[in-house]
Amino acid sequence: MRLPMTVPRSDLPGRVTIYEVGPRDGLQNEQTVVPAAVKSEFIERLAAAGLTWIETTSFVHPTWVPQLADAAEVLASLGESGRAHTRPVLVPNERGLDRALESGVRSVAIFGSATETFAQRNLGRSVEESLDMFAPVVRRAKEAGLWVRAYVSMCFGDPWEGEVPISQVVDVSRRLMDLGADALSIGDTIGVGTAGHVAALLEGLGDAGIAREVIGVHFHDTYGQALANTLEALRHGVTVVDASTGGLGGCPYAKSATGNLATEDLVWALHGLGVETGVDLESLVETSTWMAARLGRPSPSRVVRALSGTD
Ligand code: MG
User: Fold this and answer.
1) Domain presence at residue 7
2) Domain of residue 51, CATH code
3) Å from CA of 261 to ligand 1 middle
4) Which residues are catalytic?
5) How many angstroms is it from 306 CA to the middle of ligand 1?
6) DSSP letters for 48-98
7) Of 206, 277, 283, 290, which residue is 20 to 30 A from 125 by alpha carbon distance?
8) Measured in angstroms, how far is the CA atom of residue 255 from the centroid of ligand 1?
9) Parent domain of 284
10) 265-307: per-residue pLDDT in tens?
């Protein structure tokens, strides 16, 4: 069986936009550093498999993320396709934005935190200070005509702080939108969230005036909840879902091999539900198998394992 039988449900959107994070979020969290040429081939293969939105790389300082130190090189080798508005890059600060602008990109993403501890550990500053840091990044990006996405991490739990109040996530999200971001990505960075929590957070964001259309969800499969949480978000009107081909990117904060929701697992579920994605599952699985060989470890995706016969 190479495809699920399609049985649609009326409470889901007809089409979902998959926001592919494998080349950035995935590879940034893998032990192996892959050459720039492999990265650009990976991105081209993902596009050929039908993925529209692909976050390509990060202009974080190479000291912090050596895996993506070759961001400019990867973008140069992608040429015009790497500068499409559907190829965002992560920028941590104004210096990162400068480098992104030099590369000619047309979309950027910033990476905020819902919690103080993660803001300190990941950004070296408080939530308040990080918003101050992002303000000129978003302003200058918008002035340059770029599309800006704001990630909010640790939205469902924090490894140091434990439970994260919904009001705290809503507040940071609202403030990032007020800075001028075009879209949000609500991240369950350690994968602890469950479906009811997803529904409650989406309601809170709605009450704060944040339209469903601008919300993407970013789930991790650490506790096996990523797909269940995604379907819950779709039932509440979300139509943008982050996923990483092959489930690339372990979870550095939970010491687990299972990190991002695998794009293949998502596509299998959505196609079974009659939700269009534009993605060719077969070629995506081939790409994951190819990348797994380069990383020297099998894909944690159940669908990749089932369809490639490695299980
Ligand atoms: Mg992630």
Assistant:
1) no
2) 3.20.20.70
3) 8
4) 251
5) 23
6) HTT--EE--EE-S-TTT-GGGTTHHHHHHHHGGGGGSTT--EE--SHHHHH
7) 206
8) 14
9) 17-308
10) 999 999 999 999 999 999 999 999 999 999 998 999 999 999 9
* Start-to-end Cα distance in the chain: 15
**Residue 188 Cα to ligand 1 middle (Å):** 8
Residue 179 lies in a domain: yes
Report yes or no: 88 and 109 within 8 Å, Cβ to Cβ: yes
Tell me the torsion sign for CA atoms 161, 211, 96, 220: positive
Please tell me the distance from the alpha carbon of residue 119 to that of residue 136, in angstroms, as a whole number.
18
In the chain, the number of structural domains is 1
Assigned domain for 262 exists: yes
Please name every residue paired with 18 in a beta bridge, in sequence order, or none if there are none.
241
Would you say residue 260 lies in a domain? yes
> Residues 228-279: pLDDT tens digits?
999 999 999 999 999 999 999 876 665 666 789 999 999 999 999 999 999 9
pTM of the model: 0.97
Q: What is the CA radius of gyration of the chain?
A: 18
CA of 251 to the centre of ligand 1 (A): 8
User: Mean pLDDT over all residues of the chain?
Assistant: 95
